[in-house]
């Protein structure tokens, strides 16, 4: 993955080296004055190892969530439906990591078709993840603030609109990957990256970066932030009986916080890098710092695909017990037929006793 010698944009894959001549001669001339040593040996050893760890954790964790929740006959818990979608998206992403690990360590050996396909998988995962988190926040808002008359709306969002509001936009946003991603020789190796038209390619790069930061992070982030501010305000004014709601929100709130902790540093780094590419910011110290900051924050960002199942395992007592029973059962389907109730990481949600029931 050429992003290890360059850097990937958040929410859309972009593989441009800081010193990539495809990025425009004006920026290149400036960057030549800001040369710094790249520790490529460190990247070739460290990053494939980290990718391997994320791959194993992601496959095991998300696979367990998909098995336990996917075989459930009746998932009436709305949050669990969203998290099933989230686990599917994360599973798709971790399946692409072995390709990038090989690319970092050596070269791209997999041809143009897989180059485009892996780019598209990356893009779909990143967009769908943040959009699903926005849907979860909206669902929690409806459950708490509009509890008495929101069930039909929540079901519609979880069962129908999620495909139009999450998966369709995420799929459409892979069009630039289909158009620009390709495998090509560069020096002694083959790289898989987006290649924009030579004329004005810095502008192409900047437009896609700003578009994807806005659509894939800022706008969904505003939805998430607004919904949870309203929820916190409502719960802080409620009676003691709403302790159930606070407990039911704990796992979802932690998921949201972890997402921003993982992705915000990377987005800030990419934003500063883009401004530097456009010559809005002129700082050799900043450019040298970004060459260290972006790869490290990129690894942190990738780790978010493992957090969802980890949070389930440590915070969801019922989910942990159900997962153990499912794996130990000779017939998962027979077991889940007997256990008709929702398997939820939030054990306080109940159809009969809580407005958070789904």
UniProtKB/TrEMBL annotation:
GO MF term list: C-C chemokine binding; C-C chemokine receptor activity
Ranges of biased composition (kind: Low complexity): 344-358
Residue ranges annotated for the G-protein coupled receptors family 1 profile domain, each copy included: 61-312
InterPro entries associated with the record: CCR1-9-like, Chemokine_rcpt, CXCR4/ACKR2, GPCR_Rhodpsn, GPCR_Rhodpsn_7TM
GO process annotations (BP): ameboidal-type cell migration; animal organ morphogenesis; calcium-mediated signaling; cell chemotaxis; determination of left/right symmetry; forebrain development; germ cell development; germ cell migration
Pfam family, one: 7tm_1
Any one GO CC term of the record: late endosome
PROSITE patterns associated with the record: G_PROTEIN_RECEP_F1_1, G_PROTEIN_RECEP_F1_2
Residue segments, region Disordered: 330-358
Keyword Glycoprotein applies: yes
SUPFAM superfamilies: Family A G protein-coupled receptor-like (SSF81321)
Keyword tags: Cell membrane, Disulfide bond, Endosome, G-protein coupled receptor, Glycoprotein, Lysosome, Membrane, Receptor, Sulfation, Transducer, Transmembrane, Transmembrane helix
Gene3D superfamilies in the record: Rhodopsin 7-helix transmembrane proteins
Keyword Ligase recorded: no
TM region(s), chain numbering: 45-70, 82-102, 108-136, 157-175, 213-232, 253-272, 292-315
Annotated localization: Cell membrane; Early endosome; Late endosome; Lysosome
Membrane topology: Multi-pass membrane protein
Primary location class: membrane
Family recorded in the similarity comment: Belongs to the G-protein coupled receptor 1 family.
PANTHER family in alphabetical order: C-X-C CHEMOKINE RECEPTOR TYPE 4 (PTHR10489:SF594), CELL ADHESION MOLECULE (PTHR10489)
Protein's name in the database: C-X-C chemokine receptor type 4b
Organism from which the protein derives: Clupea harengus (Atlantic herring)
């Amino acid at each position: 993955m050429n992003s290890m010698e360059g850097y990937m944009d958040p929410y859309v894959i972009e593989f441009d080296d800081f010193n990539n001549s495809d990025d425009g001669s004006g920026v290149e001339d400036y960057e030549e004055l800001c040369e710094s040593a790249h520790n490529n040996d460190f990247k070739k050893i460290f990053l494939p190892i980290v990718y391997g760890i994320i791959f194993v954790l992601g496959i095991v964790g998300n696979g367990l969530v998909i098995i336990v929740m996917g075989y459930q006959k009746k998932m009436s818990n709305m949050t669990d439906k969203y998290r099933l979608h989230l686990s599917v998206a994360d599973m798709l992403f971790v399946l692409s990591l072995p390709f990038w690990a090989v690319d970092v360590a050596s070269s791209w050996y997999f041809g143009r078709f897989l180059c485009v396909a892996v780019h598209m998988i990356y893009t779909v995962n990143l967009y769908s993840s943040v959009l699903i988190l926005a849907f979860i926040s909206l669902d929690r808002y409806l459950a708490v603030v509009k509890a008495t008359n929101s069930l039909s709306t929540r079901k519609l969002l979880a069962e129908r609109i999620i495909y139009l509001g999450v998966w369709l936009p995420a799929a459409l946003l892979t069009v630039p990957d289909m158009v620009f991603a390709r495998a090509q020789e560069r020096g002694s190796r083959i790289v898989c990256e987006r290649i924009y038209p030579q004329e004005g390619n810095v502008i192409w790069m900047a437009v896609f970066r700003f578009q994807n930061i806005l659509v894939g992070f800022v706008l969904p982030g505003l939805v998430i932030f607004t919904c949870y501010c309203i929820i916190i305000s409502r719960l802080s004014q409620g009676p003691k009986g709403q302790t159930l709601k606070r407990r039911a929100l704990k796992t979802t709130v932690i998921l949201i916080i972890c997402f921003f902790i993982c992705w915000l540093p990377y987005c800030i780094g990419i934003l500063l890098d883009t401004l530097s590419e456009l010559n809005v910011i002129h700082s050799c110290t900043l450019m040298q710092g970004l060459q260290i900051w972006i790869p490290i924050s990129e690894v942190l960002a990738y780790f978010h695909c493992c957090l969802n199942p980890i949070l389930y395992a440590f915070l969801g007592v019922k989910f942990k017990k159900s997962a153990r029973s499912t794996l130990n059962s000779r017939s998962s389907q027979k077991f889940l037929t007997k256990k008709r109730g929702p398997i939820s990481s939030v054990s306080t949600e109940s159809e009969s006793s809580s407005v958070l029931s789904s």
